[in-house]
């Protein structure tokens, strides 16, 4: 197999015995991340886009081990907050391999990012509003700046993840050349950027191509740019029978839509790098037959994996403990006191018994990252797999971790 590995890794491709033993050893719920698969996904992107600058969108999975793997695999880091930027530097990225994309950035973020820029003057800051340029200038910034355009065309697996045409993101594309002209003397204008949205596949590919075409036109209208970044968003197959993206074809279409530009192509995928490198394991604690279905209660819920509740996202599920049991229709629901705390609805599953272990596929992207402590429910541990075997990359949170932020009235110091 090439260094890029197969085009897709499905839930059924994971080693069932290994997952069962990991849950035995490290408990449940448990995120498992395979670092070799992360490296393969990076390599496949590099093979498809050999000429492009590729930055990993850190927000998909910020774990240190993942970031180190991505860095070693040759991708740069695209950070959406000061916290992500700090994590990228902690994982050893050099300044010239770090980009920070500001979205209505809080002052504290700008303070931190500018202080990192003072020590690493070759990092790049992408801005989506003129206010952000002014606020950076007030802090003395005159470094590498990229303008984020709102190209008026978006794409993605759900309305809530389509960014390209949402007013929140970027500067209306027709205003970008004037702003570029204005800021040229004040900063080092190095690029233009746009991002269509997340989870692009199938029909959305034509919208993505249109975005790239508009960005090619924009890049040609601004001389002297180093790069034109057309964002991330490459989708992965969540359904078992969904074909993977033909990344080579996407790359060819991207080049064609972009056309000749003085600026180099840049992309910033997140999901594609980590989605199929991760699974979520969860123990069944309740099995309840009701008239229409079988309710399967699990120790993971919307606080562990938010995507089904937030986007009605589909994650493949299998019963690792009892794969050969008769299949029944189930609703798989977590322990959170919310009706939307459902991980899978109307889902055929080998009928589980209490104590069985379920696995949820494609949990590596926006899984742990979107976990929360709602209902005072601690976040689970994450184990990573590498050549040395499994190791805990993030320990399980405890209730004490959550309550430690509390202050009593006597600890309150009035202003
Ligand atoms: C600006 C930007 N870049 C990159 C990404 C990564 O997207 P994805 O994980 O779908 O590749 C996102 C998320 O949608 C984003 O907002
Ligand atoms: N969190 C989204 C995608 C990322 C959006 C970031 N702009 C998802 O899980 O699909």
UniProtKB/TrEMBL annotation:
The lineage of its organism: Archaea, Methanobacteriati, Methanobacteriota, Stenosarchaea group, Halobacteria. Pfam families: Orn_Arg_deC_N. Pyridoxal 5'-phosphate binds at residues 233, 268-271, 366. Specifically catalyzes the decarboxylation of meso-diaminopimelate (meso-DAP) to L-lysine. Substrate binds at residues 271, 307, 311, 338, 366. Residues 36-275 form the Orn/DAP/Arg decarboxylase 2 N-terminal domain. Coiled coil: none annotated. SUPFAM superfamilies: Alanine racemase C-terminal domain-like (SSF50621), PLP-binding barrel (SSF51419). It catalyses: meso-2,6-diaminopimelate + H(+) = L-lysine + CO2. This is Diaminopimelate decarboxylase. It is an enzyme of class 4 (lyase). Pathway: Amino-acid biosynthesis; L-lysine biosynthesis via DAP pathway; L-lysine from DL-2,6-diaminopimelate: step 1/1. Homodimer. The active site is at 337 (proton donor). Its EC number is 4.1.1.20. GO terms for molecular function: diaminopimelate decarboxylase activity; pyridoxal phosphate binding. Keywords: Amino-acid biosynthesis, Decarboxylase, Lyase, Lysine biosynthesis, Pyridoxal phosphate. HAMAP family: LysA. The modification N6-(pyridoxal phosphate)lysine is found at residue 59. Its cofactor is pyridoxal 5'-phosphate.
């Amino acid at each position: 197999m090439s260094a890029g590995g197969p085009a897709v890794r499905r839930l059924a491709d994971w080693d069932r015995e290994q997952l069962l033993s990991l849950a035995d050893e490290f408990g449940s719920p448990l995120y498992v991340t395979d670092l070799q698969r992360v490296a393969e996904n990076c390599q496949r992107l590099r093979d498809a886009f050999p000429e492009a600058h590729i930055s990993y969108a850190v927000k998909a999975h910020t774990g240190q081990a993942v970031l180190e793997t991505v860095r070693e695999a040759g991708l740069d880091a695209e950070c959406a907050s000061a916290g992500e930027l700090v994590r990228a530097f902690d994982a050893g990225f050099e300044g010239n391999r770090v980009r920070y994309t500001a979205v209505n950035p809080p002052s504290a973020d700008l303070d931190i990012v500018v202080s990192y820029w003072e020590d690493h003057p070759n990092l790049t800051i992408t801005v989506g509003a003129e206010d952000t340029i002014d606020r950076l200038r007030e802090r003395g910034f005159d470094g590498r700046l990229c303008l984020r355009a709102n190209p008026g065309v978006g794409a993605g697996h759900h309305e809530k993840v389509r960014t390209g045409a949402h007013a929140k993101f970027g500067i209306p594309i027709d205003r970008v050349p004037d702003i570029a002209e204005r800021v040229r003397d004040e900063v080092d204008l190095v690029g233009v950027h746009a991002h269509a949205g997340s989870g692009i596949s199938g029909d959305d590919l034509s919208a993505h191509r249109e975005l790239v075409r508009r960005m090619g036109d924009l890049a040609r209208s601004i001389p002297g740019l180093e790069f034109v970044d057309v964002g991330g968003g490459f989708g992965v197959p969540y359904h078992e029978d969904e074909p993977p993206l033909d990344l080579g074809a996407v790359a060819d279409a991207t080049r064609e839509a972009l056309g000749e530009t003085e600026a180099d192509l840049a992309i910033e995928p997140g999901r594609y790098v980590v989605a199929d490198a991760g699974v979520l394991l969860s123990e069944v604690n309740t099995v309840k037959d009701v008239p229409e279905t079988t309710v399967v209660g699990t120790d993971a819920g919307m606080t562990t994996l938010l995507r089904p509740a937030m986007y009605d996202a589909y994650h493949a599920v299998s019963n690792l403990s009892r794969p050969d049991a008769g299949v029944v229709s189930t609703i798989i629901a977590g322990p959170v006191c919310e009706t939307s705390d459902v991980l899978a609805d109307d889902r055929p599953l080998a009928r589980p018994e209490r104590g069985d272990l379920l696995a949820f596929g494609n949990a590596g992207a926006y899984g742990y990252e979107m976990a929360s402590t709602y209902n005072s429910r601690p976040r689970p541990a994450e184990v990573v797999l590498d050549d040395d075997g499994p190791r805990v990359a993030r320990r399980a949170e405890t209730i004490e971790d959550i309550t430690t932020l509390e202050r009593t009235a006597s600890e309150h110091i009035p202003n």
